[in-house]
């Protein structure tokens, strides 16, 4: 793996390609970070359980066509609104406040890519199926594109125009060693 | 094949597979495209007409655009031959005391089913329980054979989008 990383860095073509990655990276991060902004700055009512704008209410619309094993869990959460509220706060923080922002800043882009892939494909991408059923094609389209883009960033990273660029200069060998596999963090 | 190529191919296969796979699983896009949010639909499963004339109307909003509420503007109880045994119009439905006669399945204050002076309003509601009683002063309660409900998806399109 180390050799491959070195090989990739040496190849002119790859490093020039890398300069075009922020075009997508910042927009992808913004999709998540702006969700956080909308729920906290623009329309705080989205996180207010007694408002009609409450995001938790969306779960009700998911119910009729959700995959059968999920229906029971959705109902359980809806019948315990305080847990739903805690989950929404946690989810909003992870989704937008943390990994959306990290993606924009390019800090540990690969890790953000992994997390956003999971978020997009599990909550959003499958939302058409295990959550919402065939009700919302455009939401699914958004999530499918975001998931694929984030998966790409998990493999490519995006050093140029990012915090990762400085970290890579300072700690060229920054990464995790999991068993014998070297997993780069930037 | 070096490891980079293998990883790249794996990522390509996973991303494309998830996209194409979910497109078929969720929407049957490669066979018969399905979209449940186009037409509103309601289920009356669980509805009971008691001997004393009390109607327990159990309404579930099972399809329809998420961004609009639904309105129930007419409820009719029919005899088997199709004649109307009793009906509740929009004025009546709009004044059902919510604290006594409407029971919501899920307690999200912003998303409760209620009456608003116009009709009974189903905002976002996909699975509310409207338990609605009315003492009917007729000598004989009709046998429960069929219900018709007229619903409007929004106030403005109420007349044009009525359906049974």
Structure description:
The complex is a heterodimer of chains A (186) and B (164). Chain A is mainly alpha-helical and 186 residues long. In chain A, 67% of the residues lie in helices and 4% in strands. The longest helix of chain A has 25 residues, at 81-105. With 164 residues, chain B is an alpha+beta fold. Chain B contains 3 helices and 9 strands; from the N terminus they run αββββββααβββ. The radius of gyration of chain B is 22 Å and the shape is elongated. The interface between A and B is large, with 42 and 39 residues.
- Could you report the average pLDDT of chain A, rounded to the nearest whole number? 84
User: Which regions of chain B have little confidence, pLDDT < 50, spanning 5+ residues?
Assistant: 123-148, 150-164
- Range of helix content of chain A: 55-70%
Low-confidence stretches of chain A: none
- Per DSSP, the total helix count of chain B is 3
Q: Could you say which overall geometry of chain A the principal axes of the C-alpha atoms support?
A: elongated
Report the sheet with the most strands of chain B, covering strand number, pairing sense and barrel closure.
5 strands, antiparallel
Say how many strands of chain B there are: 9
Oligomeric composition of the shown chains: heterodimer
**Structural class determined from secondary elements of chain B:** alpha+beta
How far apart lie the N and C ends of chain B?
63 Å
Shape of chain B: elongated
Order of helices and strands of chain B: HEEEEEEHHEEE
The helix/strand class of chain A is mainly alpha
| Beta content of chain A | under 5%
What's the helical proportion of residues of chain B? 10-25%
How large, in whole angstroms, is the Cα Rg of chain A?
A: 19 Å
**Rg estimate of chain B, integer Å:** 22 Å
Main sheet summary of chain A: 2 strands, antiparallel
* Total DSSP helices of chain A: 9
Secondary-structure element order of chain A, N to C: HHHHHHHHHEE
């Amino acid at each position: 793996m180390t050799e491959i990383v070195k090989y990739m860095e040496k190849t002119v073509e790859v490093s020039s390609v890398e300069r075009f990655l922020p075009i997508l990276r910042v927009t992808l991060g913004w999709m998540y970070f702006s969700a956080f902004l909308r729920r906290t700055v623009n329309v705080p009512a989205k996180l207010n359980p007694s408002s009609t704008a409450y995001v938790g209410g969306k779960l009700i619309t998911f119910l009729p066509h959700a995959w059968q094993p999920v229906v029971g869990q959705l109902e359980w959460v809806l019948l315990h609104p305080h847990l739903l509220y805690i989950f929404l706060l946690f989810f909003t923080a992870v989704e937008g406040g943390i990994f959306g922002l990290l993606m924009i800043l390019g800090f540990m882009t690969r890790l953000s890519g992994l997390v956003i892939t999971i978020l997009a494909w599990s909550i959003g991408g499958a939302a058409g199926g295990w959550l919402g059923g065939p009700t919302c094609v455009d939401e699914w389209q958004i999530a499918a594109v975001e998931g694929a883009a984030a998966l790409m960033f998990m493999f490519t990273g995006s050093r140029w125009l990012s915090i990762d660029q400085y970290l890579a200069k300072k700690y060229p060998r920054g990464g995790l060693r999991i068993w014998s596999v070297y997993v780069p963090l930037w | 094949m070096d490891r980079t190529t293998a990883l790249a191919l794996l990522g390509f296969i996973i991303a494309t597979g998830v996209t194409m796979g979910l497109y078929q699983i969720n929407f049957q896009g490669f066979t018969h495209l399905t979209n449940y949010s186009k037409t509103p639909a309601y289920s009356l499963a669980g509805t009971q007409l008691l001997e004393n004339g009390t109607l327990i109307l159990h309404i579930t909003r099972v399809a329809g655009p998420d961004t609009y509420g639904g309105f129930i503007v007419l409820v009719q109880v029919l005899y088997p031959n199709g004649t109307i045994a009793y009906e509740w119009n929009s004025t009546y439905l709009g004044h059902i005391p919510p604290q006594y006669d409407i029971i919501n399945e899920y307690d999200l204050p912003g998303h409760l089913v209620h009456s608003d002076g116009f009709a009974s309003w189903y905002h976002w509601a996909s699975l509310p329980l409207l338990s609605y009683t009315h003492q009917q002063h007729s000598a004989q309660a009709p046998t429960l054979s069929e219900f018709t409900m007229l619903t409007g998806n929004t106030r403005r399109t109420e007349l044009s989008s009525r359906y049974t």
